[in-house]
Each structure stands twice: as structure tokens, then as C-alpha cells.
Hints:
Helices cover about 40% and strands about 20% of the residues. With about 300 residues, it is of the alpha/beta class. It has a single domain, classed as Alpha/Beta hydrolase fold, catalytic domain (Rossmann fold). The protein has an eight-stranded mixed β-sheet with strand order 1-2-4-3-5-6-7-8, with helices on both faces. The chain starts with a helix and ends with a helix.
Amino acid sequence: MNWKIKLVLLFGKLRKPIDITSSVNIKTLRSVSDRAAWYGSVLFDKKIPIQIINDMSADGVPVRIYNNSSEKNQRVIIYYHGGGFVLYGIYSHDAVCRRLCKMNNCVVVSVDYRLAPEYTFPAAHEDAFTAIKWVQKNIESYGGDANNLVLAGDSAGGNLAACMAHKCKRGNIPLKAQILVYPWIDGKLNNPSIDRNGYGYLLEKPTMFWFQQQYTPRKEDQFVPEISPKYETDFSGLAPSFVVTAQFDPLIDDGFQYYNQLKNAGNHAHYQEYADLFHGFFSTPGVSPTAMKAYYDIKEFLSNLPE
């Protein structure tokens, strides 16, 4: 690990930006975690200028649309932010969406879905699909091509993207691809990497189970396919996928196992593990050339999609 990665991990250990060990006040927790995300962005990222940014409502779901070109019929990336279904939003992932927009010369729609514990399952998943349907109907007005949709997200947002890919298949909504960045795939949280990487790497095991309880307080909801795509019974005919994982991420097994499920069903699937990195690196690409490489790998993946 380089010194920047060690600094981030030390900050997480000392400051605990997501501290659920004491009595949790959701408003305070969100404020602290948003501030930590802002520091991470300032230190290890940069705000890329984008020509046009629009904040609006997608049938009641707040979205932010990024467009860096006057061209019509651009590819559209619908992006779902991470945060355990409890934290973050459009502002925390603003730099991520700017970079995806600029690097891929496409329209990016960032979705501000409802958060737990105020809104439990299936609220976030409902909002995620509402945004897709709105994009289908309206994105042409913002330079996008409704027939060239890519779903993307990190962590809980990766879960939303994966779940929506199945939902789009069942609803005959065409997708070009799905990009799953260290996705949360198994709602039961029982993969070995949760123990192996569950302490010392920012996202820790107790926090993950706390997130689980906030969004799926009913145990029976934690392993239904609608939130745990691992338990889907039909993986055929899904959109091409790129699954991104990090070596020291508690969710690395989730991503790798899901990649194999996709690939074994005959789908076009690509997987990449990024050495020495941790859960959250996608929002701090300046910590390492390896972290920034993930964005270039995504660009290459999207550039080589089958027609």
C-alpha cells in the first residue's frame, strides 16, 4: 500500500466517519459521513467541469443530469450512489458522475433514491426503477439515447444496478451494460470476505450488519431476489457486465461470486480486482494509480460493448 492509502485507512480508524458503536442519531451520522466524503474528494479527487448540469424530479425521484456535449443520442449512464441504503446522495458522488460523464462522453443521470431507516425496502429499489422509466421517456430532451442505457452504481448502488438489470430484462427494457462497483449482492451478508476484510478497511462488519437492519429490518426480506440478486433463478439474457472489486473490501466475495453467476449463465461478463484498495476507492481515485485505472477500464469496457 502507498502512503495515501495508509493515510485514508488511518483516518477511518481514528475518526470513524461511520460510527455506529454508540447511540446513533441518523442526522448526525449523515452529516459526519458527508463531511468525511467531502474531505476525501478534496484530497484525492477533483471536480471536473461539466457543461450542463440539471437538477430535477424524475416522477418524484430527485435526479441530477450531467451532459458535457451538445451532441444528440448520447449513451446514458444511470448512476446509483453507495452508502448502505442509509447514507450519501447526489452531492457525495458528484465528482464520480462528473468523471464518468467526461471520460465516456455520455449523459449521466445520478439518482437520489430514498434512504433508510425512514424508508425501508423496497423504497430505494422502487425509486431506482422509477428513474429508469423516467429516463426512457425523457432523456432525449437532454441529449441522451433511451435505447443506449447503462446502469451503474457502487456498493448499495451496485446492488440497485444489479437488481434493476434483472427487472429491466423482465420488463423488456433494453440495456447496453451494467457496471457494478464493489456491489452488495447477498443480503444475508454471509460471505467469508466479510470476516477476512471486516476490520481496518473503512467499511467494517458491524457497520454492514447495521446497514442491513436499517433497510431490511424484516429478516425474510434479506434474501429475496428483489434485493439479493444472488438468489435469482434465471441469469440468462442479462446486459453485459463489468464487476469491479477491491482486494481489501469485505464485499469482494459478493462481486466475484456474482460475476461467476453471470458468466456461467452465458452472459458477456468482465471482472477486475484492484490490488491494495479498499471499499470506497471509486470516490477517491487520487489515492493510487490503480484506483484511477478503474475509470479507464470502465471506459474501455463501454467502448468495446457488442452492438
